[in-house]
Amino acid sequence: MERYNAAVAEARWQEIWDEQKVFEAPDDSDKPKYYVLEMFPYPSGRAHMGHVRNYTLGDVVARYRMARGYNVLHPMGWDAFGMPAENAAIESGVHPAIWTRQNIDHMRAQFKPLGLSVDWGRELATCDPEYYGKEQAIFLELLEIGLAYRKEAWVNWDPVDHTVLANEQVIDGKGWRSGAPVERRKLTHWFFRITEFAADLLDALKGLDRWPEKVRLMQANWIGRSEGARVFFPLEGGVGGEGRKIEVFTTRPDTLFGASFCALAADHPLSLELAGNDPDLAEFIEECRKLGNTAEAIETAEKRGYDTGLTVARPVGEPVSLPLYVANFVLMDYGTGAIFGCPAHDQRDLDFARKYDLPVPPVVIPPGEDAADFSIGDEAYTGEGLLANSDFLDGLSSAEAITRVIAHLEENDLGKGAITYRLRDWGVSRQRYWGAPVPIIHCDKCGVVPVPKDQLPVTLPEDATFDKPGNPLDHHPTWKHVDCPKCGGKATRDTDTLDTFVDSSWYFMRYCSPRDEGILDKKAAAYWLPVDQYIGGVEHAILHLLYSRFFTRALRKLGYVDLDEPFEGLFTQGMVTHVTYKDEDGAWVFPENVEKKPDGSLVRVDNGKTVSKGRLEAMSKSKKNVVDPTPIVEQYGADAVRWFILSDSPPERDLLWSESGIEGAWRFTHRLWRLVLENIELLGDSRPEIAKASEFSASATALRQLTHRTIDGITGDIEAFHINKAVARIYELANALGSRPDGPGAEAALLEATECIVRLTAPMMPHLAEELWAALGHKTLLVQEPWPVADPALLARDVVTMAVQVAGKLRDTIEVELDADREAVESLALASYKVQKAIGDGVVRKVIVVPNRIVNIVVG
Q: What is the pTM of this model?
């Protein structure tokens, strides 16, 4: 039997698909549309198996939907702006544009051999002037309707990348890309008014029922709706003029009678005003700015305050003066930048009160406790109870007291009920070269002047230099100097560029009409949008996905689209992990540059330095623990790589890359090849007549039942993204094909099963499937054939429920056919998410199958 030559077959079928333009999606089909999209890659220059997993998962969905009769859009592009290209220019002297283009070419050459069903005719890169020129036009239209604006504000400054970061880009007090501690600076820069849609962005999450719950929760927490009251605390002693007040937002106005202090954020206007005459306060404010402004950084920091010497009046009950502090745990970006502290019922406030010896009066009394005897120790009481020591609120529950005190505040002009959001407007100015220039001109006479739309795109100067810190556009001798479009006088361009998250917030829309001269072809956008299935990493749950939801609403307001949400369904795949290596100097080392000596020690191949093996981590270029797919595809074939990526773990979980795993997948491709060709030889040339059989023996019927149950099961598995379970069913059907039926209809059942296993593997191993489909005598392309449909009459079965144990503990149950094949049972058990979770990083040493009863997995 001829051996399967993956390299030859895969190249041939890819050429045929390209020649016949199989994956080009027309905008005027009478088929229902289906838009499949994976988050587009940053062209770092080297694709790795994490990329392969992402795009293979999307490819399975795209090919499956094509077979189900949909007109499928499955495009590809490049998230091409960003700091790494600029850093490469600084380090190696290669211009960012050249570096980026070379990387795109290289990564495209890595992706194409995978056989992805991509419409390459819609390819785009965000660094193309044709793309970012349209983005500049959007910016100007947002400016016209007030969704883009410029103001002076405190910003997050990355001292390594020398650029502003949005709040969402500050992770644990550090820059999301550089990892450097973020500083606070006051700059004038550009914002998008995302807060205009805060309520809608939050409420609409309820309707995203095809999004993971954890992503919806992360977005809800980031938007952060809080319901409570704005309360006015009058400044005492006539400070700042008669009637000056401190406005505080609180979600617990019921605890106002428990207030023992008020505190301001370091950047509160009053804090800065006082610091002008108080050097010690000014120094304290600088220390606060170094702390950062994220909840995570503040939560872990020591709670510190500076007593301003001022007092405010408690606005309810008998007159009580409260000391006014500037505190490092109060955020200017949340509420009003001022709080009142109720230490008895908030642990943070209690820690602060104990540190500065402030009173701790309890006002919410636990059930069964006497108010006269109840006091607070080291822990604040945050549970339910009744109000006490609170004048007109005594005896009320917290909920009742909140309603009552808000009414009192409003009646006496002391405050009002309010809703606030944690979400802040999106700062989009970045002080770097490799991004879309902000299309604004600054004129001393005319002020801020938009670049006329007929002068777009504002392109980047090709002769920028990167020999000193800061923004190369600002340093450029000529680029920024222009005439004012209004008065013709001397003016300067805005030298900021747009946050790269702007680029990725609308690219999925541009795919609908990537060559259109306008921003969007409204007809094409109306046909294709929303994206039916979006696939990417959970690390983008807040930044990219939230910004894309904002952009959809903004472009709806501009009249370009008529939809509420950009992504109908979202799937977040797990990472592909690999061990990390460092040499004796602490430098990361690529796996292929590590050699194992006979004594077990590790050294670098290139220089012989000692190497240490680190922990498993998600593949990333920065840690160099990436596996280049190109040599793996060349050795084993794209289908084997795809099969391993899909088979070894539930797609939402992390996948450990291993040589043994890819070898196993390669063996299965050859096993399936042999199995189908053996059956073709057995059935001979009379296959059309064989298929007409109408009577079937018991063994033939059993095979037909398994075939149709496999069709039904895999259909459901792909719909539910249980791709590894679909793979397990293929294994089960392959095992059954190895023991052929006999009696009437045996050949027909065998032919049906053989053709079905080829058709069912097509989304996962498309090249092998096409090769086998042709070997079966078909003249059509399998990629254009309809998906097989299960016969309901053949789906009835005798099943048993088997317990699955890991290390002797019950972890899951599986349903299998009575007397099912051992290998099929083992595959289904190992495909269970709960089982995979219980195994964790352990190694499966043995799998014991007691037929029809139990599976026990021994882990070492």
A: 0.86
